[in-house]
Amino acid sequence: QQKVQQSPESLSVPEGGMASLNCTSSDRNFQYFWWYRQHSGEGPKALMSIFSDGDKKEGRFTAHLNKASLHVSLHIRDSQPSDSALYFCAARTSGGNYKPTFGKGTSLVVHP
Amino acid sequence: GPKVLQIPSHQIIDMGQMVTLNCDPVSNHLYFYWYKQILGQQMEFLVNFYNGKVMEKSKLFKDQFSVERPDGSYFTLKIQPTALEDSAVYFCASSSGLGGNTGQLYFGEGSKLTVL
What percent of chain A has pLDDT over 90? Predict the structure, then answer.
């Protein structure tokens, strides 16, 4: 079973619109969460981290974490064509399992 | 920002040959990782490495795979012999630690391996 599940698999939003990406983990030991963004032909780059329940806002990007429901989301407001990319949710436990586990990703297309 | 350098960017080899993928991690980072990505899909963990030793490896890290980082040189992934299913993009990453903020991974641009 996939430990980190992302939805939707793909998403298309108009320029200026809101994109909402979701991530659910099946391991209650996950404590640290990141969103990574990968543009075509490049390596993933960390976009945001979130470790505490609630919202974290950085510019146009807002992450939300609910540890009780094991749910993380990423919201992109005023989406731009340059936001078109593959978005990964990654999670890690606080000890023992040291590797971040990645979801399968959400492909976002922002169309003009 | 901090950069991870990977060499080569693309390698084409015949099945059964050996290949070495090289990674120059961020200079003060201590933890190193290799991930495998096929067709722009999921990032699949292969192995992580600290203080000269493998910390954890996945089922994808077959016996034909090995990693090392001789002092002051590249962190390398060696595959010997290669198989057709090894064709993928291999990403190296590094982190300064394992905690919250220090556990963030910095990825290279990837090494695309094509096995014929």
Answer: 82
- Mean pLDDT calculated for residue range A35-53: 95
Distance from C-alpha of A18 to C-alpha of A30, rounded to nearest angstrom: 27
Give all strands (DSSP E) within chain B, no chain letters.
5-7, 10-13, 19-24, 31-37, 43-50, 53-57, 65-68, 75-79, 88-95, 106-107, 111-115
The 8-class DSSP code of residue A20 comes to E
Contact B105, B53 (CB under 8 A): no
Nearest alpha carbon to residue B21 among B7, B35, B3, B37 = B7
Of A42, A98, A105, the CB nearest to B55: A98
| C-beta separation of B115 from B83 below 8 A | yes
Residues 13-32 of B with CB under 8 A from A: 31
Measured in angstroms, the CA of A2 and the nearest CA of chain B are apart by: 11
| pLDDT at residue A55 greater than cutoff 70 | yes
Return d(Cα A111, Cα A15) in angstroms, integer.
6
Q: Which parts of chain B have pLDDT scores under 70?
A: none
pLDDT of res. B39: 84
CB atoms < 10 A from the CB of A39, how many?
Answer: 13
